[in-house]
Design a protein that fits this description.
This protein is of the alpha+beta class. It is built from 11 helices and 4 strands. Helix content is 59%, strand content 7%. The N and C termini lie far apart (61 Å). This is PRD domain-containing protein.
């Protein structure tokens, strides 16, 4: 295999002389002192992982990206990826080696030029991805120190998506989409019931936690069994009707139908939530 680019000490882009495919090789020290055009044997013991980017356009994009990348961005990205692996173990989504430097480069540019970073889903992100958020805070400190800039909390939320993507194999864009969906689901619940759920309440945390895992299950075609589902339309008709309505919103976002079992679990959760608002003195706070 011929080295096309050493991304950092642990990642290189190579061209397989036999298959003519471009591959990404990962392994401790594999990119150290590696020069473009040099050969590396496929049996090199430093190779721990290898993968191919199936989309040719994506590979071209990465080549362009790496050509414009500040070396310090690559170094900081490697440190952050080290934090992720130390906290969560082996990465699932290897594209973080490209996606994270690209994101950091863009963020540094925006902050250096005084551009505002807006994250309307920051609170939901902090609640849904607590462990990832803690790593993202440490990542933001590394970026701030390396580039002498102040990294706002809104950006910590976006870094959280990259951390979660690396350990879940869910694309960052999809995580943002899911977070937006969860926000819309909560707003629809509040509108239909004429209530306001305090964002600081345990009821809100329980609700968005349930919605997060439900949305992820639906998107991944993971089935759940609800032995009570047949009786729910009669026992809690209002909650079940709203759950059905919300399932249509989920279907429209994800493009996959929501099972009756999943609707049933949402109905139970809504029923318990509405009971809180019916108790004297309870306003969801």
């Amino acid at each position: 295999m011929r080295i096309e680019r050493a991304i950092n000490n642990n990642v290189v882009l190579v061209l397989d002389d036999q298959t003519k495919e471009e591959l990404v090789l990962m392994g401790k020290g594999i990119g150290f002192a590696g020069k473009c055009g040099e050969s590396i044997p496929s049996t090199d013991p430093r190779i721990e992982k290898r993968f191919r980017l199936d989309d040719p356009g994506e590979m071209v994009q990465y080549h362009t990206l790496l050509g414009d990348m500040e070396p310090e961005v690559i170094r900081i990205s490697e440190k952050i990826i080290g934090l992720i692996t130390a906290s969560f173990g082996e990465l699932v989504n290897r594209k973080i080696y490209f996606a994270l430097p690209s994101h950091i480069q863009f963020v540094v540019y925006r902050l250096r030029n005084g551009m505002e970073i807006v994250n309307p889903f920051l609170y939901e992100t902090k609640m849904c991805y607590k462990n990832e958020y803690e790593i993202a805070k440490r990542a933001a400190d590394l970026i701030a120190s390396a580039f002498q800039i102040r990294v706002p909390e809104e950006e910590v939320g976006f870094l959280t998506y990259h951390v979660h993507s690396a350990v879940s194999n869910v694309p960052v864009g999809q995580i943002v989409k899911f977070t937006n969906l969860i926000n819309e689901l909560v707003e629809q619940i509040e509108e239909r019931r004429g209530i306001r759920i305090s964002r600081e309440s345990i009821d809100y945390i329980r609700l968005i936690t349930h919605l997060r895992y439900s949305v992820e299950r639906i998107s991944q075609d993971r089935q759940v069994h609800n032995p009570l589902v047949a009786a729910l339309p009669q026992q809690m008709p209002d909650a079940y009707a709203l759950a059905q309505e919300l399932s249509q919103l989920v279907h429209g976002y994800i493009g996959k139908p929501v099972s009756e079992d999943e609707i049933g679990f949402l109905a139970i959760h809504l029923y318990r939530l509405f009971e809180v608002f019916q108790r004297p003195g309870q306003i969801g706070s």
